[in-house]
Amino acid sequence: MMKIVNTTSVYMPGTDICWVIDQLKDAGFDCLDLALDYCCTPGHPFLSDNYMDWARTVKAYADSKGVSFYQCHGVGDPQHFYNKPDDVAYRSIDVAQALDIQWIAMHPKEIQGKTDEQYDDLFVSENVKWFTPFVKKAESVGVGVAIENLPWPNANRVKPLGAIVDGLQSRFVGVCWDTGHANINGTKPEEIEVLGNRLVTVHLHDNHGVHDEHSIPMDGTYDWFGLMDTLKKMGYKGEFVLEAHHQMLEAKDDVEMQRKLLARMIEVGHQLIGKM
């Protein structure tokens, strides 16, 4: 059965990951997404020379609690992967390997002023070039890279994202489909069917089609039942990754509200999976 995965970014940037594991395990989540972008705060061990010691500590603690990590959210600018190696960005690959993470969700690079459809080929070719060294390193250690759609035109159209995956020519590359970003640009759930097995993971959150609210599914205007129908047709085999963290962050001083929000996430996750 598909797992309902929650992201560690439901708690504030810099929060101790072992503490987050405890909170999410108590709430009913035994599979997590490690938000490495939230581990880039000053003084965080991810940014230190001992980052692999930190990763091994997190792995051992997660194992002791019966918790696994399905994916992580990587960091870094793809253009730097090609032009000037970004050491912190490449750390996400090392950490993913240490934690047995299957997929690193990565953002493509926007080409400023060239986001319309007429520039799709340029968007694809540049991102293929930039991501190639990153993918090669990830592939060498058996970690996958999932290119995520973003809320600007050519990064939120299915065809260019699929073309980036095809251009990178690796079975360790796929697409991470983000429902909130899709809703902002009006990309319909049925449009992703053409991705086929290139769709390897999803980010599930909601909004009202204007701002990236990262709300719990069903709290906005996204077509959730259309998505479930499409994923079922596609034979989607990945996990369901919740990225609905903003309501949790807003309730940071209200522990009881956070418990209720986590319980709602579990409930909604089961409702969605039930449609598969």
Q: Structural class of the helix and strand makeup?
A: alpha/beta
Q: What is the residue-mean pLDDT, rounded to a whole number?
A: 96
Helical run tally: 10
When the domains are counted, the total is 1
Global outline: globular
What does this structure look like?
It is a single chain. The protein has 276 residues and is an alpha/beta fold. It has a single domain (4-274), classed as Alpha-Beta Barrel (TIM Barrel), CATH 3.20.20.150. Helix content is 42%, strand content 14%. It has 10 helices and 8 strands. It has helices at residues 17-26, 51-64, 78-83, 87-98, 120-140, 158-168, 179-185, 224-234, 246-250, 255-274, and strands at residues 4-7, 31-35, 68-73, 103-106, 144-148, 173-178, 199-204, 240-242. The chain has an 8-stranded parallel barrel, surrounded by 7 helices. Helix 6 links the parallel strand 5 and strand 6 (173-178). Helix 2 packs parallel to helix 4. It is globular and about 50 Å long. The relative contact order is 0.13. The mean pLDDT is 96.
Supply database-style keywords.
276 residues, alpha/beta, TIM Barrel, eight-stranded parallel barrel, 10 helices
Topology:
Layout lengths: L3 E4 L9 H10 L4 E5 L15 H14 L3 E6 L4 H6 L3 H12 L4 E4 L13 H21 L3 E5 L9 H11 L4 E6 H7 L13 E6 L19 H11 L5 E3 L3 H5 L4 H20 L2
Parallel strand pairs: 1-2, 1-8, 2-3, 3-4, 4-5, 5-6, 6-7, 7-8
